[in-house]
Amino acid sequence: MKPVTTPPKTYRVKSFGCQMNVYDGERMAELLAEKGITEAPEGEDADLVVLNTCHIREKAAEKIYSDIGRLTKGKTQKKAPMIAVAGCVAQAEGEEIMKRAPAVSMVVGPQAYHRLPDMLDRAVEGKRSTDTDMPAIAKFDILPQRKKRFPTAFLTVQEGCDKFCTYCVVPYTRGAEISRPFADLLTEANRLIERGAKEITLLGQNVNAWSGEDLKGHTIGLDGLIRELAKLPEIKRIRYTTSHPNDFTKGLVASHGEVEKLMPYLHLPVQSGSDRVLKAMNRNHTAESYLRVLEDVRKARPDIAFSGDFIVGFPGETEAEFEETLALVDEVRYAQAYSFKYSPRPGTPAATMDDQIPKKVMDERLQRLQERLNRDQHAFNQASVGKTCEVLIERKGKFDGQWLGKSPWLQSVWFEGDADIGDLVTVDLVDGGPNSLRGQMREIATA
Ligand code: SAH
Ligand code: SF4
Ligand code: F3S
């Protein structure tokens, strides 16, 4: 099918990746809204579909072709949507997508999507275009203000990665590490406040590699940025993700103990508990140095909850090495975690290493790892029962008068009461399941 050229009235952005990918998806939606295009109501077909892709694992590219097929299959030229492919697969395989999928009008990379409106103008004229440039940070200068009101918000502060873990595509799809200037972040934080944000999550592929100059010209790191943002009275909660063990400064550790608004939750990926595997992964840290970071943070903030990422079945991983990962999990007792089967990514060094692990072995290891991680998550939730904490309401629950929000430890908490979205509510935690907790509302802490 030829690409659609009718000017779209409605759009839908589908994001498949990490929080930065979701952030990019929100920003693309705002660009389209600026052009007078409205978001398609839930359940209705959109005139323009943006597939905001992720390249991190599995056959992401194959999935895109089947999505495109589904969007166009059996539809006439009039009924089919205009299609844009964005995100990290667009960056990695843009040319290929253009060749293989004639129904696609636009391919735009994660550093170039501020140009989407121009590409759209061209698409309406029947001209297909690809833009996978990586101009340093330019997109942030051009993006429109955000309008949607919401109590929690993402703020991308750092992009790209220079770490080159041997399994990972991010350094190729997102480019080199870049920090956004402090003044720009302050401006954006104030805009987020205007649209109702009470909690800000600072985002970056290596968010703790952020550095900049404060308004007085002093060099600051992520901890300095957190301290400055904590001065904004409307901001009640600050989080950050994802950090890397090697960029964890003393100042950042200290800020966990000193900045009350910094929530007691730390997502710090480790990937493996085996030093041999960590070396082959080019992680440049050991299991012990990782554990030391956690220990330091826990000293600064005793109620901290930890989360991590794991890869099982990295090339050459032996049963004994995998068991070292299990031992690390037993030691840390994560409150939450993400675990994945190793997926060979084109162009990465690990993809051509000897000793790729059979799928069956990976399946079995993943299951064993997840059993423990689920056990610990459930135990953490149960250990929270009896505590009183603040919950920031993010949405309505299933039933009338029921609310859903997050505890300081990023657990989902639901409860009933006279409150509203955006309220910070004092809640007694009364029941802890595997994935969420039930609370009893005491009072609204702040309106
Ligand atoms: N920059 C972050 C997140 C990177 S991507 C960090 O370094 O922590 C998120 C997670 O995906 C990684 O932490 C890793 O656990 C997983 N991942 C990345 N590449 C992978 C691959 N090729 N196969 C399986 N999991 C992978
Ligand atoms: Fe990928 Fe490693 Fe960079 Fe994380 S630190 S984005 S896993 S290369
Ligand atoms: Fe995926 Fe790109 Fe994020 S590959 S994980 S969307 S940086």
TrEMBL record:
Transmembrane segments: none annotated. Gene3D superfamilies: Methylthiotransferase, N-terminal domain, tm_1862 like domain. It comes from the Bacteria. GO terms for cellular component: cytosol. Its cofactor is [4Fe-4S] cluster. It is found in: Cytoplasm. Residues 382-443 form the TRAM domain. HAMAP family: tRNA_metthiotr_MiaB (MF_01864). NCBIfam families: miaB-methiolase (TIGR01574), MiaB/RimO family radical SAM methylthiotransferase (TIGR00089). This is tRNA-2-methylthio-N(6)-dimethylallyladenosine synthase. It comes from Altererythrobacter lutimaris. The lineage of its organism: Bacteria, Pseudomonadati, Pseudomonadota, Alphaproteobacteria, Sphingomonadales.
